[in-house]
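Hello,

I think I submitted the S-adenosylmethionine job twice by accident. Can you confirm which output corresponds to this input? Input:
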Amino acid sequence: MFEHVIKEVEEQCRVDRIPMLGPEKAKFVAKCVEEAKPSLIVECGTAIGYSGLWILRVLKEIGTGRLITVEIDAQRAEKARASFERVGASDIVDSRIGDAQKILKSIKEPVDFLFLDNNFDNYYPCFKAIEPQLTNPAIILADNVGIGADSMADYLEHVRTTYQSETHWFDIDLPWVKKDAIEVSIFRH
Ligand SMILES: C[S@@+](CC[C@H](N)C(=O)[O-])C[C@H]1O[C@@H](n2cnc3c(N)ncnc32)[C@H](O)[C@@H]1O
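Support: Only one job matched these inputs. Its output is below.
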């Protein structure tokens, strides 16, 4: 069921030009989740659930872990919720509607995996908002660090100078982008 719904959501994103990871980066994110086996993932920027579906499929396969995903656009979040329900993952996902910068401050449980994929200038404020809940260590993935580097310079400067941080580049076959990168940082305190 996951495979089928992921394909459908991917097609909808391409047709409606809704930003999404795309399969090349999604495979990488899924591999990171599989290796980390996190207890709680927080995602900023659900859109219509493409990346969430990839993440939830891994969590279902490994049989552990939950996802809190945050989207400011209520219509997109509703579509994502419907897809999460279709694949039978509603029990392990908490899909919240609102500004991630505010919602992350209300999360009061340990977070061992953070995925930043909302508008680029939100990355550093979102990181600061959830920082008190990050475990030692915690894995942080930030999407679009190739095309969005200038708008997230504060975030990149912080993680690259403070933590072990690596940039992973991808050739991408999306209508709106052909090359981009994900930053993987290991948060420690
Ligand atoms: C690149 S898309 C997310 C793509 C999604 N992660 C995927 O791969 O399927 C970015 C999303 O972040 C949302 N967004 C922008 N600012 C936000 C904020 N402050 N809080 C929560 N979501 C936000 C946008 O509405 C948009 O749907």
